[in-house]
Fold these 2 entries.
Entry 1:
Amino acid sequence: MLFENGENMTSEKIIMHIDMDSFFASVEIRDNPDLRDKPVVVCSKTFHLHKDTSRGVISAASYPARKFGLHSAMPLSEAKKLCPDVICLPMNKNLYKQVSDNAVKIIQKYVKTVQQVSIDEAYVLLKDDVKTYEEAAECARKIKSEIAAAERITCTVGIAPNKSVAKIASGYQKPDGLTVVRPEEVLGFLSPLPVTKIPGVGKKTAETFDLLGIQTIGDLAKADKRQIYEKIGRSGMAFQDIANGIDSSQVMETADAKSISRFYSLNPYTNDLTVVKMGAESICEEVHEILIQKKMFFKTITVGIRYADFTTVTKSKSHTVHTSDIFFLKRHAQDMIDELAANNANKKIKQINIGVSNLKKTDVSQMQLTDFF
Ligand SMILES: [Mg+2]
């Protein structure tokens, strides 16, 4: 066992886990600075449609809200009891997606492989020339500061020899944290933490562990294998491996994208829509090029405008048929820019984002002449 540990821990792989801090709530607070320091939660749309507190469930809670014990997956009715002054905002998925895409694009510049596991979380494999933990930490600092500068939100990074430890490390100091766990530090780092810190160990499993006298990851590392297997089964064995610093799962490039988007930064910022639309045209071409490479058709176009004051407006339009026609894409994107900008004619624009989604694979015979422009 010890030998196995030692072997795993001398592996040279360095893995990073990046987690945006209370993501949805952070984006909302960024765009509405008055909400800073207030207990803010983002809730599913249902609540706002029905205005019925028995229906809403929290999707994200700001740090001040967490101080009241509010957390994601908590019913709003319970949240209101704990914190009567809670401010509940509706989900703005398009906006979060746009911020997430931008963050991933920044991360991609610095690393070799990005495995996005959710809208606000990714595992990362560093470039081959990053050989030490110091260099990895330096890379993390660059990613953190570029995301903070571009999106004005913070993220927390964990760096470790494997995925589980990297994820546990990123949860260790939040928000805006960076935790580095070198191979020789893994067991010492994990040992005092509660077993619930292991990804996948929920309330139920923790209760079973508790019955076996296991509270910390260190307890689990030393526990009797057979007993764990009997009570928890194969997943119990996997949790025990993680407790011993063993996790050979790989960082995989995120599978087929569900959307393709590109952004364009205006420099200098401008409210001249002719200039903005020229930028839009060039990113439509980039999006189209990727569609052709991937042999994809789209049905939905999303356009986002980010203003110099960091407020953002987005709009999505779904069409009746799938297409990859570039003229169609450009024309609709430009119309949508006009519609979005109409209410803010004097505000300077900082960035535009154009994306397509609702994608469908196609074969070459279905393509149209305009697909090849
Ligand atoms: Mg997060």
Entry 2:
Amino acid sequence: MKQFKDKVISITGVGSGIGRSLAVKLNAAGARLALNDYNAKSLQETISMLPNQDIPHLSKVFDVADREAFYQFSEDVLQRFGQVDGCINNAGVALGAVSVNRLSYEDFDWIFGINFWGMVYGSKAFLPTIKKQEEGFIANVSSIFGITGIAYQAAYCTTKFAIRGFNESLRMEMHVEAPHIKIHSIHPGGIKTNIARDSKVAVGMEEQMAQQDDQQLAEIEKAFITSPEKAADIIISGIKSKKERIMVGPDAKKADRLVRMFPEKYTGILLKNSDLAKLRVEEDT
Ligand SMILES: NC(=O)c1ccc[n+]([C@@H]2O[C@H](COP(=O)([O-])OP(=O)(O)OC[C@H]3O[C@@H](n4cnc5c(N)ncnc54)[C@H](O)[C@@H]3O)[C@@H](O)[C@H]2O)c1
């Protein structure tokens, strides 16, 4: 999509981080935005930060894991603006470090509901409308961990690999039936946002995670090297230049190269170069 002026774009999870920066920058570029978050207060804060307050927008508080609410939102957007040109499925959550052994099915269901199903609902609800436009896009936010696996984050990684699989399959379908629609797979590296601070404590891990102090969190956040504003710039310029895989930040580019060069050995290389054992917060069971 070469320019965003007057385009109608839906973005989920705009109350913080990458989503907030995308909303501010796309509004500055003249887009009419349909904005979502499940946190009413932070959604309102983002709306107050939009530089062009005179450009119409629509906002709705709902949980992206709620299929009915997402479809209702897509209908509201169409009714309000009469068209949809793009959608960015950005809302996502993380779980604190936990081994596969201790990971509960409840936690799997929770994270899949938001990260995976939220992305599927957004894509499917908006696709028929977007296809009617002369040009359009769907941008689904995966992660560096949709490119590489990582210890103690199996559930998060699985949702993000699934998003990449969905994107790559849908992209091929669009090449066959609607080449004017671009499917962007977004892979941020470490971005300075609230994602780690707001991560959910896995069921049964309350005691261990309570011992994780601010210093440990700061350790995790050391890997967050790119600002959300810069991340939004990279994503927007990738959508403009019709890039299908958008690596956000030098760490994401590096990880992508590593996995392609050493598809099997990369896990050993990552283990050697990082102190993953530090992430292990639980006792032997
Ligand atoms: N920050 C990083 O290092 C990083 C790296 C790779 C990928 N990502 C991905 O980027 C996306 C944005 O994350 P961020 O880092 O900006 O996080 P963030 O926590 O700063 O912002 C996420 C926003 O999504 C909202 N949200 C969460 N669950 C929701 C739900 N069920 N329904 C509606 N809104 C919901 C939150 O309220 C919040 O405003 C996520 O998909 C995340 O997985 C982030």
